[in-house]
Amino acid sequence: MKKIRTSIKFLPNTSLRGSLILFFLVIGSSLWAQESTTYYLIRHAEKDRVNPGNSNPHLTKKGKQRAQYWNKVFEGVVFDCIYSTPYFRTIETVKPTALQQQLPIFYYDMKRLYNDEFKDKNRGKTVLVVGHSNTTPIRCGIMRQARQRIINALRSEWRQRHRLLG
Prior knowledge:
This protein starts with a strand and ends with a helix. About 40% of the residues lie in helices and about 25% in strands. It is elongated. It has helices at about 60-75, 90-100, 115-120, 135-165, and strands at about 1-10, 20-30, 35-45, 80-85, 105, 125-130. The chain has one domain: Rossmann fold, CATH 3.40.50. The protein has a 6-stranded mixed beta sheet, with helices on both faces.
């Protein structure tokens, strides 16, 4: 019999409009021993908007403070992997946490983040992913869909077993 543990939690938004969103998703699936994969998805901190034509701005002073804030939020979490897009604002958002936990920052392609290779590579791990306002909510939706497919498959398997036993 397979066990699955699934939990979704949204932490309160403690910043001004357009700020970070923390999405906590646990998807677990295993035979008797419980194996969980935990993803922390956050949006980058406040970026410098002085030059609207700059597609790769750094963080503002407030953004740097927010990056330090996230480092404090994650003090009790031991990450196995940290992922970021290759933009200054995402890298600078996660850098304090990566330094604190002595982990490298792996860059990911925004279009190919939650594919089978990524899921297999991070199975059973605790993962921090820093993204953008136009990608982080999409990742949350993709992960929710994957979770629902797992739940549906387990329900179907359970029903089939009970029909065979009955």
